[in-house]
UniProtKB/TrEMBL annotation:
Xref: NCBIfam families: oligo_HPY
Protein name per the record: Oligopeptide transport system ATP-binding protein
SMART domains: AAA
Topology of this chain in the membrane: Peripheral membrane protein
Major subcellular location class: membrane
UniProt keyword annotation of Cell cycle present: no
Key words of the record: ATP-binding, Cell membrane, Membrane, Nucleotide-binding, Transport
Organism: Marinisporobacter balticus
Top-level taxon of origin: Bacteria
Family: Belongs to the ABC transporter superfamily.
Amino acid sequence: SERLLEVKNLRTSFFTHVGEVRAIRGVSFYLDKGEAIGIVGESGSGKSVTSMSVMKLLQYPGRIVGGEITFNGKDITNMPEKEMQSIRGNEIAMIFQDPMTSLNPVYTIGNQIMEAIRRHQGLSKRKAREKAIEILKLVGIPSPEKRVDNYPHEFSGGMRQRAMIAMALSCEPNLLIADEPTTALDVTIQAQILELMKNLKEKINTSIILITHDLGVVADVCSRILVMYGGLIMEEGKTEEIFYNPKHPYTMGLLKSIPRLDLGENKRLVPIEGSPPDLLKPPKACPFATRCPYTMKVCEEMMPPYFEAEKNHRSQCWLLHEDAPKIQVDTGVKR
Ligand code: SF4
Ligand code: MG
């Protein structure tokens, strides 16, 4: 398979009046063409900042302070904003948690999709309208010929999120970055939107980065998962490895806190106690040491390196050291 994105040792900081907040502290990952990966972690773990860095959309006082980003074979780390804009417009699309932040309430849904299509593909008005209807149909909007003339407020929350996806897809991007795209939706609609993203990935071969705090969301869509904490990737592996053979205590904690249907409506098993590290003074050793149930002396003294649990499965945790005690954990996740 072909590489679409390669991020090497990315470091991003926010230069605030109280000092440098080291939001991303050395993150490396890749994404192949047509592949979907999940970036999972609590808020403040660095998952959104990672995607904003990749898009070069960091807001002041944020700045990339190190590393390399290669997109479609091009080094975009220091690419001028003008060129970056054309890449963002034509090759990368983003969807966010709240579609109302991206949909304009005073224009019809159809007009907004047509706008996007005409900007990217230079089609005539009539052709763009046909295409807009086709895309609305593709994302599962019922009677798209009528709905194309609706305003955003005439759509339900789930339909607005579909319309957002339609807009994002209108330029047939190589990469779709979805940041908590289903967080505001109820469980049924959430499942439909995820199913939709999965189908679209297969239909138009778009690569996807799905960012979420909820491991349950990425399971069906993504083939690989990166688990982030304290501005670092704590664990990375194939989806089934992360779910059934997790190696990092933070991943285990996230798995235990997935809402489980068999326990009743939205019942969370065990929340992870404590709070994430202060990245103004980031810990030099394991960032999870203050919350980890298995903390050893070395954890508080030295940053763990990445250990390979097996091929393509790495964990930044001292427990994988050959001299560490072997732990047995039941996360409650059943095959
Ligand atoms: Fe826990 Fe130590 Fe592993 Fe950090 S390195 S997650 S403190 S066991
Ligand atoms: Mg976020």
